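Lecture notes, continued. The same structure-token format from the folding unit now serves as the input rather than the output. Read the line below as a description of shape only.
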């Protein structure tokens, strides 16, 4: 389905979704991101810190396109509790592995919204004395009034709306959808 095609029934919870970024476009962009990352870390060894659970699908696609030596470390972070779309900072965050000390670290997350999650992760990683810290995020919500941290490798900028699919969820649903979709929010006009 092409980007922007309206009214694609998801078959999950009966919700009508609109494709924001198609699976084909995502895959092409992941190829490009992987090429940039591989070039940046050529001849070096990398620790990828994947942020669960939203980055799961992106991470799985990205690492299989990276022809470099890498170790994988996972960390859990959650901003939402149950069926809500309001991120008011992080609810919980796991422990960063000691393995990253003295190593090049790339934090990989699904989406930058308020930026609180990424800021907290960068801070935690820095405390473990890594050789370098960079960030890779598939999506950045454009929110001019919010001071988001800079990202080293970015997939797409999107409008400030709630999105699901390609690993991103609402109430732990929709992660398995191949495209990235906007979820209509009750009581919130589209794009508001
Ligand atoms: P932040 O801390 O506000 O930047 O939120 C980042 C985290 O909230 C991401 O890692 C996602 O897991 C989650 N999140 C933010 N926006 C969305 C969205 O539109 N759909 C699904 N998850 C989201
Ligand atoms: Mg997340």
């Amino acid at each position: 389905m092409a980007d922007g095609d309206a009214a694609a029934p998801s078959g999950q919870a009966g919700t009508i979704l609109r494709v924001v970024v198609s699976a084909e476009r995502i895959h092409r962009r992941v190829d490009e991101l992987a090429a940039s990352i591989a070039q940046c870390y050529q001849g070096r060894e990398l620790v990828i810190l994947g942020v669960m659970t939203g980055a799961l699908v992106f991470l799985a696609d990205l690492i299989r396109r990276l022809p470099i030596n890498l170790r994988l470390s996972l960390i859990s972070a959650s901003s939402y509790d149950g069926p809500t779309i309001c991120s008011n900072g992080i609810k919980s965050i796991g422990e960063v592995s000691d393995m990253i000390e003295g190593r090049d670290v790339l934090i990989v997350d699904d989406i930058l919204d308020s930026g609180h999650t990424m800021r907290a992760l960068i801070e935690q990683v820095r405390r473990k004395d890594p050789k370098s810290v960079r960030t890779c995020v598939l999506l950045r919500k454009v929110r001019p009034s919010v001071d988001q941290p800079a990202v080293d490798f970015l997939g797409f900028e999107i409008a400030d709306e709630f999105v699901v699919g390609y690993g991103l969820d609402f109430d732990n649903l929709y992660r398995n959808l191949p495209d990235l979709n906007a979820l209509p929010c009750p009581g919130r006009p589209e794009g508001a």
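Point for the exam: The chain has a mean pLDDT of 88.
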